Amino acid sequence: MTSPINAAQVPPPPASGQVMILITELNPDGEGWQEHCRELPANEQERTYRFRYAADRLRFAKCRLMLREVVACWQCVTKNEITFRFGKNGKPFLVQDHGLQFNISHTTGCAVLAFCHNHEIGIDIEMTRRNTDFEGVARKVFTRREQEMLMPLTKSEKRKLFFQLWTAKESLMKATGLGFSLNPSSVETFLPKYSGETGSFTSQNLPTANAFQVVEIPVSPGYQSMLCAPAPVMGKSPLTFTI
Ligand SMILES: CC(C)(COP(=O)(O)OP(=O)(O)OC[C@H]1O[C@@H](n2cnc3c(N)ncnc32)[C@H](O)[C@@H]1OP(=O)(O)O)[C@@H](O)C(=O)NCCC(=O)NCCS
Question: How far apart (Å, rounded) are the C-alpha atoms in residues 202 and 191?
């Protein structure tokens, strides 16, 4: 049977010093998860079935299959020859990486896959239409300075800044591989001022935080995405493809 990912759409691998982002739509009701799932190896099919909802099954299965197919295409192997190892907090890496690093984020309706060579990266995407107690969550996860920036804003400005700060922080938590073992309120985020520019981080709990930069990734309206990477790969704007 033919694969759900069209190999002709896979762009050439990122050049050295360049981050590549692949953006893909996910059917919000999860329809079609089975056709992605059945292309995965047995352990990943089992993991797909452990998710209760079809939407979550699709998020995992489609992204994992895309990842396998893209890397297989770049490394001239079959998708089932790709194997993963996992860091202490669950960050996946390629076993046969040939220097290739990646990170994935998925939310209802959209996923982003980031790739580059020789540097650990992190990416996050969130759907911004959902309602959250922005102020209540900000008190728990933002620094005092970030809260002071957020609180005086109008409701729509608050929503925008909340998701910008949140995705920036989560992209750092993912770039370092620490995930939520890093307290988000211990990281101060300096957002990029203009589209295409990079922002930065400081943290007393994470002395390496200032080695990372953050840049906004343009995605569809209703979504917010940020990429975090060390300065050497932020010199060039990330290349984005929607497939
Ligand atoms: C990584 C983490 C921040 C992702 O949060 P999320 O908003 O739910 O999910 P996203 O869609 O942005 O990212 C999920 C993807 O990140 C990747 N990922 C998993 N753990 C990761 C980590 N520690 N660092 C970076 N990336 C990670 C995976 O590829 C995962 O997708 P997959 O399982 O479908 O392959 C969160 O799950 C986490 O912190 N996990 C680690 C658990 C941990 O450390 N717990 C400590 C006790 S508090």
Answer: 12
Beta strands in 97-171 (DSSP E): 100-107, 110-117, 122-127
78 ligand 1 Cβ < 6 A? no
Mean pLDDT, consecutive 10-residue segments, the chain of 243 residues?
Answer: 70 95 96 96 98 97 97 95 96 95 97 97 96 94 97 96 97 96 96 92 93 96 97 92 93
Measured distance CA(3)–CA(67) in Å, rounded: 13
Q: Ligand 1 within 6 A of 152 CB?
A: no
Residue identifier of the C-alpha nearest atom 10 of ligand 1: 105
- The region, left, alpha or beta by phi > 0 then psi within -120 to 50, assigned to residue 9 is alpha
CB count within 10 Å of CB 46 equals 11
pTM of the model: 0.96
Dist. CA 155–CA 149, nearest whole Å: 13
Q: Please state which CATH number belongs to domain 18-242.
A: 3.90.470.20
Contacts of 94 (CB under 8 A, 6+ apart): 71, 82, 83, 84, 85, 100, 102
Burial class (CB in 10 A: 0-12, 13-18, 19+), 182: buried
Write down the residue that tokens 């709990």 correspond to: 205
Fill in the DSSP letter of residue 238: P
Six token digits for residue 65: 């299959």
Atom in ligand 1 nearest the alpha carbon of residue 111: 11
Give domain limits for the chain.
Answer: 18-242
